[in-house]
Design a protein that fits this description.
- The protein contains 16 helices and 17 strands.
- It folds into two domains: 228 residues, 3-Layer(aba) Sandwich (Rossmann fold); 171 residues, 2-Layer Sandwich (Nucleotidyltransferase, domain 5).
- Helix 12 crosses helix 13.
- The strands form three sheets. It has an eight-stranded mixed β-sheet, with helices on both faces.
């Protein structure tokens, strides 16, 4: 049942029913906010800012402490709350607008003693408060369950986590919920790489019902598609390799909202060697260069698993829409087929065939040097291309797949400023 359906149902309820339904977390929660099925020990909830992580954590701990259906077969007597600092546990996890005190009805609300760093429920359940700044404080206490918040920000993350795990030894099935906005820390990487970790994900916009529309619009305009937006709003783990030719910081520094007047434009194609379900993607990139030699990457139009006629039609459409000067296509894989299929789509298409004589890494190095010099700019966000760039090292991509987007980018930049190109003529966008 969707949220609109639920609101329609509530509109038909009488006052007593309305109060009961509105307080029922299992009725209102999204699937990603509810405990995953199965016998997991660690539940990792990764989400953007305002995605409802705190509410999910508070409701889960409440369900355990009270032994509610859907959470626990009986009340859990010993619980732990672990945050970045004691102040964070107090201000967010306990006293916050979505914290533990807020989600309880008055009758079953726990007694909060800040000086003792302890919550005590009417049924005798106890939750102790800990800070990730003091891992040793977790040496000794034992628990049935724990809620850890913002583990991506913990100062002593691994030490605190390890001490907590040693203390999760009470009850028939001790378990732990970690709620966090993702950051590429060693602890988060380890948890995500553990097949026994149950993972749920949420984006900020998934919780739009509880957020101001103006906030969502402003965030989308300012950060949509950027590294920061993908991490803080979409809840994505944004990583990069130490040996990659590009870094996230480098790409963020080369971002622009709009392109200036460009002297020449090209559509670059890195065609797949085959078509079908397991074929590589067809890299398609649009870029232009100013009179003073600064390249602006305008669009990543890469297509996955398409037939030659389809990527050729897309390339021709890009050429016309951007009023480009030329279509650059690599012919190593398809030979004359690549140029022939473009001619079939549009016989008047100006096509330049290029052939790779060096490996991908060697071809990409001079292009990366141009980025370091500030001579290549990205117009807007190009997240999938940038992921490839920050994962491309001497051995290629970590996945072993072909860097199709990056290849098309390299051909575009090479044609515009590193290879032989037509003399410039100014054009406006």
């Amino acid at each position: 049942m969707g949220r609109t359906d639920k609101e329609s149902l509530l509109a038909r309820c009488r006052a007593p029913e309305l109060r009961a339904w509105s307080a029922d977390w299992l009725f209102w929660a999204r699937d990603d906010q509810l405990p995953p099925p199965g016998g997991w020990h660690i539940w990792l909830m990764i989400g953007g800012r305002g995605a409802g992580k705190t509410r999910a954590g508070a409701e889960w701990l409440r369900g355990l402490a009270l032994g509610l259906d859907g959470f626990a077969p009986r009340p859990a007597g010993r619980l732990a709350l672990v945050g970045e600092t004691f102040a964070d546990v107090r201000d967010v996890m306990i006293e916050g607008v979505s914290g533990l005190l807020a989600v309880h009805a008055r009758a079953d609300r726990p007694d909060w003693k800040p000086s003792n760093r302890r919550l005590t429920w009417p049924n005798g359940a106890i939750a102790q408060v800990f800070s990730a700044e003091d891992p040793e404080s977790l040496r000794g206490p034992q628990f049935e369950a724990a809620w850890c918040d913002e583990i991506g920000k913990w100062r002593y993350a691994r030490e605190t986590w390890d001490m907590l795990q040693f203390g999760l030894r009470l009850g028939a099935h001790p378990r732990c919920l970690a709620t966090t906005t993702p950051r590429p820390t060693p602890l988060l990487r380890a948890l995500l790489g553990d097949p026994d970790t149950a993972v749920s994900r949420a984006r900020t916009r998934d919780n739009a019902f509880n957020l101001a529309p103006a906030f969502l619009s402003a965030m989308a305009r300012a950060y949509g598609g950027t590294r920061l937006g993908r991490q803080e709003l979409d809840g994505e783990m944004i990583s990069e390799r130490a040996d990659a030719l590009w870094s996230r910081a480098m790409l963020e520094n080369c971002r622009e909202r709009t392109a200036p007047p460009l002297a020449r434009l090209c559509v670059a194609i890195d065609p797949p060697a085959s078509s079908g379900r397991h074929a590589d993607a067809c890299g398609l990139m649009v870029a232009g260069v100013t009179e003073d030699g600064v390249v602006h990457v305008l669009e990543d139009a890469t297509l996955a698993r398409v037939r030659p006629a389809e990527w050729a039609a897309r390339a021709a459409a890009l050429y016309r829409r951007h009023q480009a000067d030329v279509v650059v296509v690599e012919v190593n894989q398809g030979g004359e087929m690549a140029t022939a299929v473009l001619r079939e789509v549009d016989p008047a298409l100006p096509v330049v065939a290029v052939r790779a004589t060096r490996g991908k890494y060697l071809r990409a190095e001079p292009v990366a040097a141009l980025y370091a010099q500030g001579r290549v700019r990205h117009v807007g966000a190009l997240p999938e291309l940038e992921d490839e760039m920050c994962d491309f090292g001497p051995g290629g991509l970590s996945s072993g797949r072909s860097p199709d987007r990056l290849d098309a980018l390299v051909w575009a930049v090479t044609h515009l400023v590193l290879g032989r190109a037509a003399s410039p003529r100014i054009r406006g966008l």
